[in-house]
Amino acid sequence: MQATLTSPFRIGDVEISNRILLAPLAGIGNWFVRLQARRHGAGLAVSEMVSSFALHHRNRRTLDELLVIDPAEHPVSVQLFGHDPEAMRSAARIAAEAGADLIDINMGCPVRKVCKTGAGAALLSDHDLAVRLATAAIEGSQRPVTVKLRSGREPGDDSGMELAVRLAGAGVAAIAFHPRPASVQHAGSPDRGLVRELVDRVDVPVIVSGGLRSAADARRAYDASGAAAVMIARGALGNPWIFEELAGRRAASPRPDEVMRELRWVMDRAEQHFGAARAAPYLRKFYPWYLERLGLPKRANRPLQSASTLAQARDLVARLARPDTDVHDRAPTRFAGALAPAPA
Ligand SMILES: Cc1cc2nc3c(=O)[nH]c(=O)nc-3n(C[C@H](O)[C@H](O)[C@H](O)COP(=O)(O)O)c2cc1C
Description:
Helix content is 43%, strand content 13%. The chain is an alpha/beta fold. The chain has two domains: 9-246, TIM Barrel (Alpha-Beta Barrel); 256-339, no CATH class. The strands form two sheets. An eight-stranded parallel beta barrel has the order 3-4-6-7-8-9-10-11, surrounded by six helices. Strands 1-2 form a two-stranded antiparallel sheet. α4 (85-97) links the parallel β6 (76-81) and β7. It is globular, with a radius of gyration of 21 Å. Residues 323-344 have low confidence and may be disordered. Flavin mononucleotide binds next to loops.
C-alpha cells in the first residue's frame, strides 16, 4: 500500500519528514521562499537553479545571494545546472560546504538560454555526459544527488525515461520526474502513466512534478503515479497554504489577515536579503499572487507595480489591511480605490 503524504521517507541518508516538496523555481526559490514553504509544512524545498560555472568560478553574487541557507531550512536541496563535469564537481562541493543536504541537477529546463550551453533538457540528447555530471556531483559533494528531468524532448520521445533509469543505476538517490516533453514547456497534460512506469523501473524514490496546481491535483497525481512524493511548483506561488492543506493541517482557505501577514513577511525578508532598493523591483512578481489570494481584481496590482520604493509599496499594502476591512466582502472597484496612490 502507498504511504500517506505525511509519512517520512529517505533520499539517500537524508530523512525527509513528509512527501510534500517545493519545486525549484528560478528567480523565486531563494532561502526565504523555501523557508516559507517549510514553515507551512513542506518536508523539503529545492533551491532555484544555480549555475555550476558561477560557483566553480566563485562568482561573488552567486555565492553571497544564491547559496544563502537559513538554519531552519534543513534539510534543503540546492539545484545546480551546467554541462561540464569538473565545474559540476567543484560546484557541488561548494554547495555542500555552504550547507546543502542534497544536491539536485537540472536536466529538465527547456529554456533556450540554458539548453544552448548543453545544460538542462539538452542533456536528454547526451546521456553519457548526464551520467558523468551526476557522478561528478556525487564525488564532489559527498551528499546524495538527485536529478530533475522531463520525460523526453518532444511528444513520443522517451529519452527522459531512459536517462532516468540509467541515472538511478549510476548512483543518483532520487528522480524528480516531470512527465511532459521539453518541447511543450508547460502546456498540455502531464502523463502520470509515465511516472508509474518509472516507479516500476527504478529502486530510488520518484518524485512527481507537473500540473500540481491545487492540493487536490497533487493528491490525484500521487495516487495515480505511485510516486514517493509530490513536488509543488506554480501551485505554491503566493500559496504556501497548499503545504498545510496537503499535510492535513488546514481545510479552509487562508483568511485575508493571514494573507496580509504572509505578504508582509515576504516583504520583510526580501528587504533583509536584497536591501530596500533591490527588494522594491524584486517584489513586483510577488504582489499579483497575494492580491489574487485576497480576491482582488488584476487592476488592483497597478499601483504596486509602479511603486518605485519599498516604502511606497508598504504604504499601499498597509492601506489594503485596514482592520475594519474584510477584503473578501469588498466590491472590486473599491479594492482598486483602496490601492490608488495617496494624494500628494
Ligand atoms: C517560474 C518558474 C521557474 C522554474 N524554475 C525551475 C528551475 O530553476 N529548475 C527546475 O528544475 N525547474 C524549474 N521550473 C519547473 C518547475 O519546477 C516544475 O517542474 C514545473 O513548473 C511543472 O510544475 P507545475 O505544472 O506544478 O508548475 C520552473 C517553473 C516555473 C513556472
